[in-house]
Amino acid sequence: MSSLLLNASHNLCFKLSSSGCQWQPLPPNNTHRLSFSRVCAEKQGPIAALASAEQLVWPSPSDETPFWKRDFPSWDAGSDVPSDVVKDSDPMHIIHVTAEMAPIAKVGGLGDVVTGLARACLSRGHTVDVMLPFYECIQRQQVVDLELVSTYNSYLEGEWIPVNAYRGVVTGIPVILIEPSNQFFKGKQVYGGCYNELEAYLFFSRACLEWMQVTGIQPDIIHVHEWQTGALPLLYWDMYHHLSLKKPRIVLTIHNMEHYGECRQEQISKCGLDGSAYATVEKAVDDRTIGHNPERLSLLKGGIVYSNAVVTVSPTYLKETLCSGWLAGTLIKSRDKYFGILNGIDTTMWNPATDVFLPAQFNAHNIEGKKLCKQYVQRGLGLISEASGSGNQMPDAAPEVPLVICITRLVPQKGLHLITHAIKRIEELGGQMIILGKASDARVESEFKHLADLHNQGPSIRILLLYSEELSHMLYAAADMVLVPSIYEPCGLSQMLGMRYGAVPIVRKTGGLADTVFDVDEQSNHHEMTNGFVFEGIDEGSFNWALDRAFTYHREKPEEWTGIVRRVMECDNTWNNTAGKYIEVYNSVRVA
Ligand code: ADP
Fold it and tell me: CA–CA separation, 302 vs 279, rounded Å?
């Protein structure tokens, strides 16, 4: 098996093993050989795709262009908008203010949630805009009808900084991109540029309100997300509401309480508020720093106090956050306006029957295409033995070998010790595993690089330390099982996406995982609701107990396994199910 994947369009090769997973200069004599292998089935439907499966050009690890970097047809988001959604009787204008939006600026679930919820509200008849920083890394061609709509100034440290506001459309959703003329949001990725991130998001929060003020646009709801936009409610109620913005009400969604926007009074003052005014227990002081010199503030706490309603992303995480963590006291005081609403899946972007990234499509009634996706990924990553087919023939894949995937940010929250343990255990059980992950911490990165070096040449484990939206779709489609062993998990989209693509979840019982996965062996669960394998402890034994049972079902009870796969695909974890709860929250705070 070759360890090289080649990307000739960039004259780079991708080494799977020797140096972790890195692009390196291509030897000069390599020629470009790009073969677009997808069976073009989006017009014909999944059954037609299967009829022409032999046309697939099977990928190989030695391809010049890795199979997930080939050209794909563009999303026709408009054609997939559900037409049967009932319109709400009293439409409103909602503006999301956010640091992420899928797919143009996505790091984790926040980006998916903003896009999915915005689309669900649009299809229910509301007017929705998404405001986000115009990160330098946003690919302009992904924004349709991009145009500069206003140039104005916004305040920073005694100066007025020129700002450009652009309008455009991203997968059918109207966006407003805010581009400051200073260094904020410059760099190759969404987070971690060479600027002060906290001050950049403080500036962005004010610049969004300033834009509403200069344009006279007053939505019913300004929906802010996470600590990055936690200062907006303060700026709204203590500044802009005293100027011209009267109508909007503020809803804050907390996607993850771990990040709370620690800052100093002076930093808040930089955006024009009096930072010292928020240094009280009732407002924004971080309770743990009381009596310290200096005390710290939390933008998330300030956002909770100043918003009209606060939502977190699952009912179980709501309970957990009321019982533990330093923000529990603030949340208990805010109990009347604090709600737990489960995230949904954006079915336009995540639909195995129409997904443009898949080599073959499928649905709950016909999963033949899923088998092709599994073979395609196995083949492309060299997970199939040398004896399997070559060239353009159908390979003798190993469909009976359970393929487990784990797609995640590689951070301690995600249960890193269980992910590394899983590699060993899955090998022992004779399965295959693919990890697609990105670490922000250098130590974690080097630990996983080391593991990649150890395993990526072998027959059963692939560790890919990169971010790829396209590959993530293919992996969900290829997998028999999706692993989410989080220590805590506010909601978790990975298990829901996996289920929609027919991968059975193996999860730790926490947060939103506990709200979406119900163990097949738990007697008290209603059989038709059971859809996965659940464990409770954070030790290897607890994890093995769930993984081993999943493997036993897969190998020894094929009919029951097929039933579970059907059930996971039929679970309705879409926004159709939960967007209405957000509408109720919006309605409960909006001005009539
Ligand atoms: P979190 O928001 O904590 O990162 P979620 O499970 O809610 O976790 O959402 C993670 C989202 O990010 C999913 O859409 C998942 O597929 C995606 N994702 C995570 N890591 C990667 C990666 N390396 N490449 C592509 N997509 C990824």
Answer: 10
pLDDT, residue 22, reads: 34
- CA angle 144/251/148 to nearest 5° reads 25
Report the DSSP pairing between strands 221-225 and 297-298. unpaired
CA 279 / ligand 1 centre spacing (Å)? 35
Residue nearest to atom 2 of ligand 1 (CA): 109
Q: How far apart, in whole angstroms, are the C-alpha atoms of residue 480 and residue 558?
A: 12
pLDDT in tens, 534-551: 999 999 999 999 999 999
Residue 302, H or E segment: helix 299-306
Nearest to 301 by CA among 251, 231, 207: 231
Ligand 1 centroid to Cα of residue 107, in Å, is 7
Q: Identify the band that residue 18 occupies on the pLDDT scale cut at 50, 70 and 90.
A: very low
Selection from 276, 328, 331 nearest residue 307 by Cα: 331
Model confidence over 266-277: pLDDT tens digits? 999 999 999 999
From ligand 1's centre to the CA of 472, what distance in Å? 9
Rounded to the nearest 10°, the torsion over CA 155, 159, 162, 165 is -10
Over 70: is that where the pLDDT of 296 sits? yes
Closest by Cα among 286, 224, 271, 284 to 249: 224
